[in-house]
Amino acid sequence: MQPEAHTSYAAAFAPPLLDPDGDVPAAVTGPNGKSAVKRYDVYRNNVTVSLIEALAAIYPAVQRLTGPDFFRAMARFHIRETPPTSPLLFDYGRDFPGFIARYEHARSLPWLADVARIERAWLDAYHAADHPPLSPTALAAVAPDRLANLVFTVHPATRVVRSSFAAVTIFAANRIGESSDRIDASTPEDALITRPEFDVVVQRLPPGGAVFLTCLMSGCTLAEAAAAATEASQDFELATNIAGLIEAGAFTSLRPGDQK
Amino acid sequence: MDAEIRPRTSAAIPLRFSLPIGGVAGTSFKPEYLAAILDEGPQRGFFEVHAENYMGAGGPPHRMLERLRRDYPLSLHGVCMSIGGPAPLDRAHLARFRGLVARYQPALVSEHLAWSTHETSFFNDLLPLPYTEATLARVCDHIDEVQEVIRRPLLLENPSTYVSFRNSTMSEADFIRAVAERTGCGLLLDVNNVFVSATNHGFSALQYLADFPLTRVGEIHLAGHAEQSDDEGELLLIDSHDGPVADAVWKLFEIVIARRGPVPTLVEWDSNIPDWPVLKAEAAAAQAILNRGCAMEDRHAA
Prior knowledge:
By secondary structure, chain A is mainly alpha-helical. Chain A has helices at about 10-15, 35-60, 60-65, 70-80, 95-100, 110-125, 165-175, 210-215, 220-230, 240-250, and strands at about 30, 150-155, 160-165, 190-195, 200-205, 250-255.
C-alpha cells in the first residue's frame, strides 16, 4: 500500500458527489463484487437533495415565485458551482442571490435576486445575537443641541437591502402571504430587516431611509447621515426616519460622537 | 481480533461512564413540536437535537432549546464533525460544539463514524470510510481531541452505508470496538443502521450485534428506512428517517435490550415529519420494550 493510500479515500470519494458525469470511485464496491453505481448514487442524491432543501428552506419566497421545479433546477446548478464551505447550513447560500441575478432563465423575473437578498438577510437576523433594542424614550432624554452629534450602535440583527424593484412587497406577498392584488414591480423599495425580540421584522424604508441607515451603520453621526440621506432623496424626513428605526428596534444604544 | 474473548453480555463489565438518564425513551426535537410538548407539561423522556442547528449566535433556536432544557434532559447529536475524515478536525467547529455542551449540559453527547467535509467543501451527508489500521488511528486521534475539548466522553454512532471500500481490512464492529477500547469513548448503537447496513452488505445483523461491544453502548437510535434496489435489482435500504420504525428493527432492539439491559433510546424522524402524537407513540413503544428490559434485570437481580 502506498503511504498516502489511507488518506486518499476522501479525495477519491468526494469529487463525483457533485459531478453527475464523474465515474463511481474505483475504491468502493458492493458486497461480493456487486456493482456500486446505484449504491454510490445514494450518496450523490443525499448530497444534492439535502442541499437543494437547505436552499429551499432559506429561500421559500423565491421558490414560491419560481415554482418548485424551476427552483430545484436553479438550486442544483448553484450547488454544483458553489457547494457549502461551512457545516452550518444556515450560513449557506450567500452567493445564491448573485447567482440568481446571473441565471439566464430567471431574466424574466428581474426582482428575484433582490427578494433572495431579503430572505438571506431574514435568516441572518433570525440567528443574530440577542440584544435588547434601544428604548423608544432614549432619544427624548438627549439635549437638543447634542442630537446632531449622536452616533448609534446598530442591533446585530439589522440589515438593509436596496432594490430597484418592489422587492419588499413581493417578498411579503410570497413569504408572509400579505395580500397584494396588484403589485407594480417597477416601484423601487428598500428593506429594513431586524429582530428586536423573537420575531424578524421586514419593513419598507421611507425615501432616503436606506442611505440614512447605511450611514448610521458605518458610524456616521446623526447630522452626517441626515445630510447624506437628504442628498440622496429630497423627500427624506429625519424625524419620521429616526423614530421609525428606533420603533422597529434597529439600534441597541446611542452615544455622543467624537467632537469635531 | 480473537472472537472468543468478546463479551456477549452486559452484566460483568461496568461502564466507565455513567448513564445519567437510564432506560428512558426520547425523540428527535423539532421546533414545530415545542408548543405541544409544553402543553403536556413535563413528562418522562428526553429530546435530541442536531448540534449544528443551534450554532447561531442567538435568536429563537436558543430560546426554544433553553425552554426545552428547563423540563427535559437533552441529547446533543453532532452531525458534521467529520471524525471519520482524513483531514484535521475543524477547530472552530469543535469550539462551537464545546460551547453548546457547556451551555446546555446535555445528558448525552454523540457524533458519527463518518465524514462530511473534504478540502473546502461540506457535503451535508454522512460519508463512509475504509476500515484499516490507518483510519483507525486517525479516528482515535480525532475522538481523543473531541473528548479533550468537551471534557467528557463522546458516544460514537455506527453508520449506515451503501458501499464498502475494497481496501478495508477489518469489520465495522471490530473497528468500532477498537475505537472504544483505545479512546474510552462510549457508543451510540443505531439499530436501524445495523439493519440497513446488514441488508445492503449481505451480513447478519445478529452477528454484527454479537460482535458489537454492547457494554459500551450509552444510547440507542431507532428510525425508519426506505426501500430501493441496487444495480442487480436487489433490495437496497436507505437510512431515510422518514417513517415509522420497521418491525425487524423493533425485533433487533428487543434483542439488544435483553442482552444489554435498558439504555436511553431515541426515535429519530427527520423527514416527512409527523404530528407530535405519532412520534410520541413511537417513543412509547420503545419505552414499553425498555420497561420489559428493566423488569428482566430486576428478576435477574432477585
